[in-house]
Amino acid sequence: MKKLLALGMALLMSTTAIGTATAQAINENPLSDPRVRQAIAYAIDMDTIIETIFEGKAVRAVGLLPDGPNKPDDLNRYDFDPDKARALLAEAGWNADQELDVVYYYADQQTADLMAAMQAYLADVGMKMNYRILEGDVGAQISVPPADPVNGPSTFKWDILYGARAALALQEYFNRFGYGLMPTIPNVPEMNELVKKVNGSTDPAVQREGYFAMEHIINDKAYIIPLYYQQLFSYDSDRLDRHGAPYGNEQYNYNWGVENWTVTPDADGKSVLYTNAGPAQFFEVPWQNLGIWVHNKFAFDTILEADGALTPIGGEMAETYSVSEDGLTFTFTLKDGLTWHDGEPITAADVVFSIGAALKFPITNPVLAATLKKIEGAEDFVAGTADAVSGITTEGNTVTLKFASIDPNVLLSFSQFAPLPAKYFEGVDPLNLQQAPFWQKPIGSGPFKIEEVVMNDYTTLVPFEGYHKGTAKIEQIIARPSGDNDGNLLVNATAGKADFGYTKVASDVPALEALDFMNVHAVDIPYTRMIWINQFPKPAN
Amino acid sequence: MLTYIIRRILILIPMAFAICFLVYLGLELTPGDAVSYMINPDALGSMNPEQLEALRQSLGLGQPFHVRFWVWFTNLLQGNFGYSTTGGVPISSIIATRLPATLELAGVALVISTVLGSLLGVFSALKRGTVTDSALTVIGMLGVSIPEFFFGLVAILVFGLNLGWLPVGGRSMPGDITFLDRLPHLVMPSLVLSIMLTAGVMRYARSSMLDALSRDFIKTARSKGLPEWRVNALHGFRVALTPVVVLIGFRLPVLIGGSVIIEQVFQWPGIGNEFISAVRSQDYPVVMSIALLTVMAVLLASLIVDVLTALIDPRVRLGA
Fold it and tell me: Of B214 and A346, which is predicted with more confidence?
């Protein structure tokens, strides 16, 4: 009995010892101590920040992933608890004289206010911090992993980065935990395997299991501290009737039923829709930011179609499509009679050209690029050792893609992929695709074709007669040039020159809502604002 | 005078070169480049660094600073402004489409401010010490001291949004073909842009006229029995005009630069708006070309001012 008791005590002590050993710094950087990171999470009152700085136009984040079936519901919320934060810091032996260098890359006032609030909250628990905005080549300052992914040192001197992860596919939240890719956290071996798991299966149940496990690990150790989920606000005036079309993630392509929209005719009896998102200098290649530019969504169709939550639901340009049982072959057949806006037929050759160009275009969306790179022969094609991608074959209007390994996002990627007319890019180096004259007035395939471009003043679009889903009912779209973060949005909206658009700028929303003819719809999107904590030892100089 | 003009033009070349070099150097010292602008920082975590480097190389951004500057400059000497790094558009085309918009805005503002400022200034001087003079002086001070963007926002609020008389922004709408079609778009920005200029010209013209009216030749003219309007208009105003012309001459290039803010406020598709976008995106060729244009405008304006001054005031002699 005594032996049993002794064994039990020994086991208990060893368990405690393990617990203590894990809850301590793993290198000379005190931020590598989970207790310090947890203290930061407890110290910040995000509920108050959301209600005040963001005027209630954001959602408190618990976990990296947006709310939904792939997120566990038992994560620690790290509710505001300054006493607990102080206790954790005391336990960790935090040096109150250490000053945290916090960096960010957003130039808006709300971010500056958030930084000031964080500074005050951390000061309250005994942590000093200063903050500064990063200028210039932000990528080089935030995303370069150390040469040694276990011991570092870090390639940066800052302590905390405030930023966001905007994801098309949920894997994007975690892929940086793959070995050697994480700039801020010494390698976490169990995460390496989980990243492979969610990227190597098309089975939603397997993926969900991986997401649950990763969320728990990150949440438990506070490797990254999620702050809030940013919402997207879609606005439309009383003049616009979407005829029941859903409000989705406007940053991507989804079935928004724009061809069925109608607007109240003006005094001349013409149905004109005004929007605030015309091009200022050029039309952007629609593979970079996918659906972020409304004018591109009017003008280009994609191979497949997704719903507002970006779940693939069917074909758009594709009449039929299928994925083989082993998940390694994707086949689709283009609808008969599809044409570009110049009347020329859309062919499988255009699709093949577009896949090749998107492979070589250096700033293709990462999810789309990852899918395309898994096609057999893609690497040789990109390297220039092959003239074509061997895994792509065509027969009539049918295109078959053979993948070298499973990609979980094939359907998602092709619901976002808009082919381009090959004939306009003869002799154009895909590296410099954006610099082609085509982008001054592109020829598309979507429900509206570009009628007139007075760059930086306005762009007009008119219905594409014979569009395969039916000719659009709005007679003309007039798009003034600005993005979703433009001060002129409110001016144009108030003047009745913005019937439709979206913004992610929470401070614009109350003013839009105050317009009695404007309707604003909050849309939850996978866009998590968070802080990354640099847990590597700092570089010598 | 011809020799003087030729000599001044020859001096412009090294000056323009030096200024362009300094602007290029300034851009070089700014952190980041066009590629870092093209990519949303939120997406950086998922981008492939090798492909980004390939893009840098293909856009010529991998060359050393002095090589890039020399390539740009020698191309310029051959009449080739180059291409926008971010959009690939020929810069000559950008200038050809944007500059007329700016010249239209600036030109109208200059005419308004010159005519109105000179007349009000002279009128104020002739009414010196009266309530009218004081009121005009106060208005002039307000015009000079309140920033243009504030006037712009107030004008948009009142005339664009509340009264709905004028469009809130842009240079034209689909179907606007002639200048008259576009005129409603021009009214607010040109008037707002001319406010500060008018106030400046008015104050200058007032003090210049007062100075002229105190000169001996004015007394002589009066003693000859000339009517007062003739003394003021032909003798006083002509002399008072000289420094005003100098001021207006130097305002020509300032108008191009000064319209940057107004173009932003009124969504005017001019060269100033383009310049701001190009600086933000570190589009070197576009920034350099617009900077060169502005430099040349400043230097040529100073030459024109010298020549005009000599023509207006016979006492001024160019040469030596």
Answer: A346
Taking the C-alpha atoms of residue A102 and residue A119, their distance in angstroms, rounded to an integer, is 9
Number of neighbours of residue B216 by Cβ within 10 angstroms:
7
Residue A194 amino acid letter: L
Q: How confident is the model at residue A100 (pLDDT cuts 50, 70, 90)?
A: very high
The domain limits of chain B are: 100-283
Q: Is the dihedral of CA A387, A388, A390, A396 positive or negative?
A: negative
3-state secondary structure of A39: helix
Q: How far is CA A314 from CA A255, A304, A322, A369, B79, in A?
A: 10, 6, 10, 21, 53
**Token reading at B20:** 């362009």
Q: Looking at the domain B100-283, which fold is it?
A: MetI-like fold (1.10.3720)
Which residues in chain B (149-208) have CB-CB distances under 8 A to chain A?
156, 160-161, 164, 167-174
pLDDT of residue A348: 97
What's the length of chain B? Answer: 320
CB contact, 8 Å: B245 with chain A?
A: no
* Residue A257 burial (10 A CB sphere; 0-12, 13-18, 19+): middle
CA distance A454 to A469: 29
Q: Which DSSP letter does residue A307 get? A: -
- Closest residue in chain B to residue A436, using alpha carbons only: B88
List the structure tokens of B289.
């070309």
B109-135 average pLDDT score? 89
The reported pLDDT for the residue numbered B183 is: 94
**pLDDT over 70 at A460, yes or no:** yes
Percent of chain A with pLDDT over 90: 74
Q: With contacts defined as CB-CB under 8 Å, which chain B residues touch A429?
A: 58
Beta bridge partners of B61: none
pLDDT in tens, A397-416: 999 999 999 999 999 999 99
Query: For residues B309 and A259, which has the higher predicted lDDT (pLDDT)?
Result: A259
Instruction: Give the span between the Cα atoms of A505 and A109, in whole angstroms.
Output: 10
Model confidence pLDDT, tens digit, residues A209-238: 999 999 999 999 999 999 999 999 999 999
Chain A residue closest to B266 (CA)?
A: A488
What is the Cα–Cα distance from A396 to A109, expressed in whole angstroms?
54
| Chain mean position to CA A513 | 26
Check CB contact under 8 Å for A432 and B161.
no
Cβ within 8 Å of B, A 155-184: 163-166, 172, 175-176
Contact between A465 and A481 (Cβ < 8 Å) = no
CA distance A291 to chain B (A): 14
Residue contact A366–B47, C-beta within 8 A:
yes
State the ipTM, two decimals.
Answer: 0.77
Condensed to tens digits (0 to 9), the pLDDT of residues A48-87 reads 999 999 999 999 999 999 888 899 999 999 999 999 999 9
Q: Secondary structure of chain B in the HEC alphabet?
A: CHHHHHHHHHHHHHHHHHHHHHHHHHHHHCCCCHHHHHCCHHHHCCCCHHHHHHHHHHCCCCCCHHHHHHHHHHHHHCCCCCECCCCCCEHHHHHHHHHHHHHHHHHHHHHHHHHHHHHHHHHHHHCCCCHHHHHHHHHHHHHHHCCHHHHHHHHHHHHHHHCCCCCCCCCCCCCCCCHHHHHHHHHHHHHHHHHHHHHHHHHHHHHHHHHHHCCHHHHHHHHCCCCHHHHHHHHHHHHHHHHHHHHHHHHHHHHHHHHHHHHHHCCCCCHHHHHHHHHHCCCHHHHHHHHHHHHHHHHHHHHHHHHHHHHHCCCCCCCC
* pLDDT at position B296: 80
